[in-house]
Amino acid sequence: EGGGAAIENVEQLVLELTNPTTRENALLELSKKRETFPDLAPYLWHSFGTISALLQEIVSIYPMLNPPSLTAQASNRVCNALALLQCVASHYETRGLFLKAHVPLFLYPFLNTMSRTRPFEYLRLTSLGVIGALVKVDDTEVINFLLSTEIIPLCLRTMEMGSELSKTVATFIVQKMLLDEVGLNYVCATAARFFAVSAVLGSMVQLLTEQPSVRLLKHIIRCYLRLSDNPRARDALKHCLPEQLRDLQFTSCLKEDLATKRWLAQLLVNVGSGTNAQQGAAQHMQMPQQNTL
Fold first, then answer.
1. CA distances from 190 to 65, 170, 278 (A)
2. Residue 30's closest CA among 49, 4, 6?
3. Distance between the two ends of the chain, CA-based, in angstroms?
4. Within 13 Å, how many C-alpha atoms sit on residue 214's CB side?
5. pLDDT tens profile 207-258
6. pTM above 0.85, yes or no
């Protein structure tokens, strides 16, 4: 009986999304129910006018992007709409429909913003969360769609100027795209694309010398390791891999993270240009064995 009442409550809230006067509260309440109601996504997608209402919420704040005038309240409201879209992007039944309707394109203007205020940062992070939900499933169709719509330059922009959390999610998205053969081939197809990605990864490593972040470093190393699977990229990395990654002091923060240490060791072997790199890699290779106890 309780379950029936919960479904009725969700159905009522979904209905209230289509009414502009009840929408704000319905957005808030439904975004709270995402975890407890796993089939919310099909309800949202298949009910009349709901996705249009969510897209209306997104489009309505475009005028606040430039010049930047997004308030905290407006940011919270649109982020609740984005949270519901993330739910649709994550669900196996609605993910393909979500892509076919090109819904992610509505989020790209948010990733193109440069303002560092909290409302904008929250907007970028939540938008990246939707894209992150799409790439988590390892689906080449998703990768093809995102590559064809130029997501990589938008991720690179966030990797350069976002908060630590936004940078981490944007780097994770690039990592997932590189792990797909289509994504790796795309980035390594031209020198310009490869150097655009490697330059941003390199500048992020430089910044980590001042503000260390293990979770961000982990994704950066995985991106570099994957790039080193491509012969031309591997040759280029011999010259442009940041020196810090060969510095045991800089990478000592990884001592608890055995998987990332192995990735780094493998990367240094792959691009090994001289004995220092090989010795550093050898030391990294030994460290996990010592720490297994």
1. 32, 21, 29
2. 6
3. 51
4. 10
5. 999 989 999 999 999 999 999 999 999 999 999 999 999 988 888 889 889 9
6. yes
